[in-house]
């Protein structure tokens, strides 16, 4: 049931790209929406806000950003921008340094006057539904100030979960992983190549970050093994870098690859991606997180049993900023009653078909 109030109160979790986009569309309709954006860091940008910290930040919380010092986008700015806010010229470059993307998000927040709606240094402890008979569901959002530790709870009509999924590293289960005595890190904690000078390095994973980090590290390392189980990459690699199969096991100072090859190494960089992580969602929501799969979500977004709560940025192979923009528009139209969701039974059936083609999710307008 959608909210029946003339002015709908919305909580936005996160002030990264998705959260700022949510705010941009909420602020455009002040007569219909009242909202707060919650952000645990001290400024906007989410994962685009580079930090030299690894592990814990200055407040003892896990470091959110996975940016490394020299990262550039793997999407051109011409397709990456929000539809109504193009990037600046950026000296004619298409593939931007992460600092330019952060600057873009800061300017986006300023342009739409979003800073005054953002509650910085706020850590979300819990979001729980408040069921009321014959009335739309409300949500209790409980949070702590990361500086003062003061706790508060506010009530909202809807929640937009925009905390992203590039902050909690995924470590595969590899025999001997904990026995390795060299330098072992996840790409989440990688910052600059100099830490691997003159080392023999194994990079596990050949996604965008794995390839990028392997090439970057090769400039200072003695040797780099790009270890993965996907088809061999056809791009030219540095002379001291070669591709091999994935890791089968580890020992104190070496790896054994699938197929039996054995390599002595000084460092291993795990580039195997990230976990979807929503620890603040109350158990009563019954959200299930499987192998890169969150359920029950309709259109990979609406929580089926509580559709006035939606999760952003679940799909992975997307052009993120434009998708966030479309998701925000659809969700707010739903809150205003301008689009109607199918029945829960139909949503579950169509969600199941999303993972078993042919596809066919629909909204009713």
UniProtKB/TrEMBL annotation:
Enzyme class: oxidoreductase
EC code: 1.-.-.-
Protein name as it appears in the record: Flavin-containing monooxygenase
Domain of life: Eukaryota
Keywords: FAD, Flavoprotein, Monooxygenase, NADP, Oxidoreductase
Signal peptide feature range: none
Pfam families hit by this protein: FMO-like
Family annotation (Gene3D superfamilies): FAD/NAD(P)-binding domain
InterPro entries the UniProt entry points to: FAD/NAD-bd_sf (IPR036188), Flavin_mOase (IPR000960), Flavin_mOase-like (IPR020946), FMO-like (IPR050346)
Family, similarity comment: Belongs to the FMO family.
Gene Ontology molecular function: flavin adenine dinucleotide binding; N,N-dimethylaniline monooxygenase activity; NADP binding
Cofactor annotation: FAD
């Amino acid at each position: 049931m959608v909210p029946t109030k003339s002015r709908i109160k919305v909580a936005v979790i996160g002030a990264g790209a998705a959260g700022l986009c949510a705010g941009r569309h909420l602020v455009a309709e002040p007569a219909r929406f009242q909202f707060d954006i919650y952000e645990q860091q001290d400024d906007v940008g989410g994962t685009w806000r580079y930090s030299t910290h690894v592990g814990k930040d200055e407040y003892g919380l896990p470091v959110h950003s996975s940016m490394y010092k020299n990262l550039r986008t793997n999407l051109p700015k011409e397709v990456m921008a929000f539809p109504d806010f193009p990037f600046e010229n950026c000296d004619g470059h298409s593939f931007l340094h992460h600092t330019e993307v952060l600057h873009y998000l800061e300017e986006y927040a300023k342009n739409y006057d979003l800073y005054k709606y953002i509650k910085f240094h706020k850590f979300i402890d819990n979001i729980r539904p408040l069921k009321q008979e014959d009335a739309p569901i409300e949500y209790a959002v409980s949070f702590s100030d990361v500086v003062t530790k003061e706790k508060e709870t506010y009530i909202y009509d809807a929640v937009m979960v925009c905390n992203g999924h590039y902050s909690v590293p995924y470590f595969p289960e590899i025999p001997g992983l904990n026995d390795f005595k060299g330098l072992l890190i996840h790409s989440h904690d990688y910052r600059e190549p100099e830490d691997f000078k003159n080392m023999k390095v194994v990079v596990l994973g050949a996604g965008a970050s794995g390839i990028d980090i392997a090439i970057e590290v090769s400039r200072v390392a003695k040797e780099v093994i790009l270890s993965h189980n996907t088809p061999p990459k056809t791009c030219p690699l540095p002379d001291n870098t070669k591709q091999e199969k994935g890791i089968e096991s580890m020992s104190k100072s070496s790896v054994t690859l699938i197929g039996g090859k054995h390599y002595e190494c000084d460092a291993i960089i795990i580039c195997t991606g990230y976990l979807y992580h929503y620890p603040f969602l109350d158990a009563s929501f019954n959200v299930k997180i499987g192998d890169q799969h969150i359920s029950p979500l309709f259109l990979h977004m609406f929580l089926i049993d509580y559709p006035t709560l939606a999760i952003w940025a679940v799909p992975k192979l997307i052009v993120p900023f434009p998708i966030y923009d479309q998701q925000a528009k659809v969700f707010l139209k739903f809150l205003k009653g301008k689009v109607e969701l199918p029945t829960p039974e139909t949503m579950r059936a169509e969600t199941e078909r999303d993972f078993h083609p042919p596809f066919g999710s629909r909204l009713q307008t």
